[in-house]
Amino acid sequence: MITVATPEMRKLLTLCGVLIAAALSDAHADQSTPPNIVLILADDLGWNDVGYHGSEVATPNMDLLANEGVTLKRFYVQPTCSPTRASLMTGQAAIKLGVVQPMSKINPAGLPLEYPLLPQLLKEKDYQTALVGKWHLGYRQQAYGPRARGFDHFYGHLTGGIGYWDHVHGGGLDWQRNGKTRREEGYSTHLLADEAIRVIKSRERSKPLFLYASFNAPHLPNEAPEESVEQYAHLPDPRRRIHAAMVTELDTAIGRIVASLEKEGILDNTLIWFMSDNGGLNPSSYSDNTVAIAETIDDWFAPGEAPLTVLEFLRVNVLEGAADNTPLRKGKQSIYEGGVRVPSFVYWRGKLSANEISGMMTVEDVTPTLLTIAQTTHTEDQFDGKNRWNDLQSARTDPTTEESGYVVKSTEGEAIYLYPWKLLRLSSGEIELYDIETDPTESTNLTQNHPEKAFAMQQKLDAVERGESIHVPIYRAVFNMDFFGGEEIYPPWAEQVEP
């Protein structure tokens, strides 16, 4: 039986259709498009290597973004590169991941495969993902590489440090695009900026973009274009001149990326998060005895002529770093503030007001925060870090989120933060306690003044979850050093990756 709709029924059906369409339209309007995300990582940048911290180094682009964005005054990472990058990509504690030192080029494993990484989690919101620059989270097996861990596109190097001009690490060329070796002339900072801009221009317009721009600057070796070094001819230390030039080249590259976002008309819908992977490298990072040995090697042998490669590696790494972490204590590889408190800011024009956060935030917080901004369905209990999006918007930190205990570790020892308290347990067995709110330079050890606090924090440090180390024994790495730049004696690294 066929029923013929009356005029009144047709009007009613039409009205219902209009109401349903309006409701669907409103629902769609409420679901704002996730923003583009540009995560910029510097390598071994010192606290006092940026202009907005008062440095003599010219960093006008970073200064502008920091001053117009949210500056993170107490942003903490790990003392070295691989552990920081592991936490950055997972939102987990590096010590739990078993990534507690830089990965050697002979390391067979990498960041544990059971943990999903930020680019993989962003796929829920259909992000296109690209890594431009340094990986350093596993490279001997394909399963540990960036393309297997959520990045659609990878251009750069797998290992820890390369020559800026020759792109060599540990005797092998380490420069590729998506698994294919690239022999390209040019300064690495320039080439990485070029590629980042290509990624931005060639992106699929209908999808949000996650770009991880992981620069190798200003990591050793000290290499920079001559014209950039000449800008710092007034500095008395020749190593500092080159280091400053490398930082300025990095700043210029960041400025080019931001200009490309502006030109493409997407800067207003792009969040930019900048940080360094650890404190800057300089002789203060090492003990007086280690520096004395390195200086003896430097006195006895010309650069590159030490009879053992391990001696040359020691000389270079101890003496040639020229970062400035003033006023913080020590630097890269140290669990003191100079090794783990780094420059960082978040910029999103029109969404975040110019401000600063003086409370503690950590690298573990980045992934859960970015996933919140991207509107994914993750839950916060998946991570050791915390979602700090509300903090970034309000320029405050909730003290209750700082009580779980943030742990940093290196060969120097371990430290745990229960802000504002920080307890260090050095490899020698010594215990030190500081109130880093009132004593950021870690000048006054309060262990004797607060023995109960020191004891309680040691117990909390003992209770920290620790994963099995993924690293090879140090003695094995010593006999196959990770030199940065130099002669090629092995096949390119992209060709040594096992299926």
CATH architecture of the largest domain: 3-Layer(aba) Sandwich
Report the helical percentage: 25-40%
Number of domains: 2
Low-confidence stretches: 1-5, 9-31
Q: What's the total count of β strands?
A: 17
Biggest β-sheet strands, sense, barrel: 11 strands, mixed
Task: Name its key features.
about 500 residues; Arylsulfatase, C-terminal domain; 2 domains; eleven-stranded mixed β-sheet; four-stranded antiparallel β-sheet; 17 strands; about 30% helix; disordered N terminus
Explain what this protein looks like in three dimensions:
- β14 (406-410) and β15 (413-418) form a beta hairpin.
- α6 (188-202) packs parallel to α8 and α9 (288-300) packs across α10.
- With 499 residues, the protein is an alpha/beta fold.
- Residues 1-5 and 9-31 have low confidence and may be disordered.
- The strands form three sheets. Strands 1, 2, 3, 4, 7, 8, 9, 10, 11, 12 and 13 form an eleven-stranded mixed β-sheet that branches. Strands 14-15-16-17 form a four-stranded antiparallel β-sheet, covered by helices on one side.
- The protein has two domains: 36-282 and 321-402 and 468-492, Alkaline Phosphatase, subunit A (3-Layer(aba) Sandwich), CATH 3.40.720.10; 406-462, Arylsulfatase, C-terminal domain (2-Layer Sandwich), CATH 3.30.1120.10.
- It has 15 helices and 17 strands.
List the helices and strands and how they pair.
Elements: H1 7-30, E1 36-42, H2 60-68, E2 70-76, H3 81-90, H4 94-97, H5 118-122, E3 128-134, E4 153-157, E5 168-169, E6 172-173, E7 176-177, E8 180-181, H6 188-202, E9 209-214, H7 226-230, H8 238-263, E10 270-276, H9 288-300, H10 309-319, H11 337-340, E11 341-342, E12 344-347, E13 355-362, H12 366-373, H13 389-394, E14 406-410, E15 413-418, E16 421-426, E17 431-435, H14 451-462, H15 474-478
Helix pairs in contact: 6-8, 9-10
